[in-house]
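Hi W., the magnesium ion complex you wanted:
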Amino acid sequence: MITVKSERELDIMRRAGHIVKMALDRIEELIAPGITTSELSKEAERVIIKADAIPSFKGVPSPYGGVDFPAAICASVNHEVIHGIPNNVPLKEGDIVSIDVGAIFDGFHGDAARTFEVGSVSPEARRLIEVTRESFYKGIEMAREGMHIRDISSAIQKYVEANGYSIVRDFVGHGIGTQMHEPPQIPNFVTSKRGPMLRRGMTLAIEPMVNEGGPDVRILANKWTVVTSDGKLSAHYENTIAITGNEPEILTR
Ligand code: MG
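Structure:
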């Protein structure tokens, strides 16, 4: 069932979302050649805990039978798409790194992701990051009362493919609230289903994952990290949003 949040619940979700954004802002400040994703995760965890929230990714069971997720953030470098496990490998000039952060405040979740540049990156990498971010904004133009999930999916897919990139199909956006993943699923591509109609008070995590090459991905032996099958770059952009009576509201800001 799709939950509809009261104004009081939306207010808590704004606070959860703001904490996620603070953690992402702190990571953006720190990202530079030489820092490790493990250091970034520790700093994000510190920001989240200081704000009286809980890092929601830590301890999540692997969907593929691996270890529980060990860190506060997902950090996915270059051809890694999502769910990268933070480690002690220093980031290098020219890398791109997708950082996904989740926090629970007063029982409600916030979830957002950005792909950051490490030092100066190639024009190709920069364009991939920009198209991925812009595809999110094309998607939420459709996130209005009376529209359907597929309207969001279609806007994202059209923009990404018109720019010569491909959409990851094995992972999708999701409803969010007292659970990190609630119905409905929000594919970033059109399927045969129109999906539910959007109503005010629904809260959604919209998260295009965009590949420079083909759409296919595989999962590494650690049972977490998703990588592009062709080894080409991938980028990710996500916010938690609320459907309102007018413009959609970004909660992770
Ligand atoms: Mg998400």
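DSSP finds four helices and 15 strands in the chain.

W.
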